Fold:
Amino acid sequence: MELIFYYWDKDLIMSKNINQIFTANPATAMLSTDLMYLGRSPFSSADDFAITWANILTSVRTQATGTWGINISGNAATATTATTATTATTASSATTITSIGAMKLYGNSTGSSANGQDITLGTGLSFTGSTLNATGGGASVTAQNIQNMSFSYYRDTTGTLNNFVATFTPAVSAYADGQFFVLNESNNNVGTSPTVAVNGLAAKTISYPSNSSLLNYDIDNANAILIYDVTLDKMVLINPLSLYQIAPSFVGQSDSLFKLQDSGTANVYVGNFAIKFMQSFSPFDGCFIYLKVLNDNTGACTFNLNGTGNVSIKLKGGADPGAGDLKAGYYTGIIYNGTVWQILN
Structure:
């Protein structure tokens, strides 16, 4: 009797069969319903089982401990598999990425110990294949944008006196406490309650941090630093020009202040100070002016200082000046006595 022994190389035959199947019916992607045949410890015939590809993915996401991840970089970042989990910043919070799906991310939301959660992409973020696209407003920010204050600096050329306008890009959709703006203003405030409207939102009154009203010309063709205060519901001016200007009480202590050039006509003389007063100004008793006359007077005349109104000019004793008492091209010294301007020379 002849005994014939057959040697069965399971691995060899299985490898050959798999290769034959691939040659006959190749696939380039898994379907969720695809089945895989696996063995489980202790690997007896009763331990063999089959599982769908969809269940494999769910199992991997549930049991992953940070060994899979993606790398996100750049403004329109390409998401690729990586060897370690990567912390990525989305529109709302930092998120640890543990896997990648065709059109979404899978992983752990910050502060959660659970795995396998779908991570919702923030506004302006989307996937195209494996590429993470950032398309929302402000998605592409450079160091130079920040250095140039591109998002908080605006030169106002469309606003009007006491009513300022600021239009930022990207647009400010709502006021928020602590918002910081620098407004290069081409107008000024002549009044105590100027306003500014940002990107078409409701105009907000500008005040001091103490909530007190501004002085005239606190904003005057210069950079105004503004911070929105939600408690006051106002824009707070950090750098009022009144911090650097001369108060009316100092008028008369410098030649450059009280020497004025007449800009009126014969008998109606006008003079304006070179400085702008933060507080309302009116001539005070003893206010002294040297006025360089533009035209000879022909008789009774008046003087208007800084737009405060025409006030009579008188000689000592109260008489009107005679013709030629004020000569074109010459300085005339006048002093206010509380009622009229009195000629001194």
User: Anything to note?
Assistant: The longest helix spans residues 10-24. The helical segments are 10-24, 53-63, 143-147, 255-258.
